[in-house]
Amino acid sequence: IQNMLLLDGMLIYNPFHSIGLFSVFDSEIIASADVYTGGFGGEFGGRISSVMDIRTKDGNKKHISGKVDVNTFGAKLLLEGPFIKKSEKRAASLGYILSIKGSYLEQSSKLFYPYIKGGLPYNYLDFYGKISFEAKNGSKINLFGFHFDDKVNYSDIATYKWTNWGTGANFLIIPGSSPMMIEGTVAYSN
Hints:
By secondary structure, this protein is mainly β. It is 4% helix and 54% strand. It has one helix spanning 105-112, and strands at residues 3-7, 10-11, 30-36, 50-56, 65-70, 74-84, 92-103, 122-135, 140-154, 158-173, 182-189. The protein has a seven-stranded antiparallel sheet with strand order 5-6-7-8-9-10-11, with no helix packed on it. A four-stranded mixed sheet has the order 2-1-4-3, with no helix packed on it. A hairpin with a 2-residue loop joins strand 1 (3-7) and strand 2 (10-11). The longest helix is centred in the middle third of the chain and has 8 residues, at 105-112. It is globular. The mean pLDDT is 87.
């Protein structure tokens, strides 16, 4: 409880899936990750152990791109691109990034691990999306949200389901020729 994990300034309560091997974060969308193990400021709410501050990419502002990844336990889709392309002539750009990843371990384990009676009962489905508006002077506004679902199905005992979700916005305002900037985040997560 004394560790804090932030995604684009939004508090994430449970950053791992039920299996414990998989993070809720898609590594393809991470722009930076700062880890503070001590000596961090009061802006992190008085945690005493550590802070991990993860920032995501804004998405490609020049062209549409994507990636598909499929393996024996899950699949992932990443899409990014512009709504309004970034160029020298335009005063602003508008882009997006969308990540969807999920597990089908409960189904595939019966095929790949037949020696495990009933297979492995774990599944998850993660969504993360972000829309980024950037002005020519460097000012930005980002709207983002996530939805992480977990399901563990012990067939003869119990079925567990839980969801993490959140939405928010962050901004960076660079006023005219002033040597300052204004930055903030408004978010809700559950």
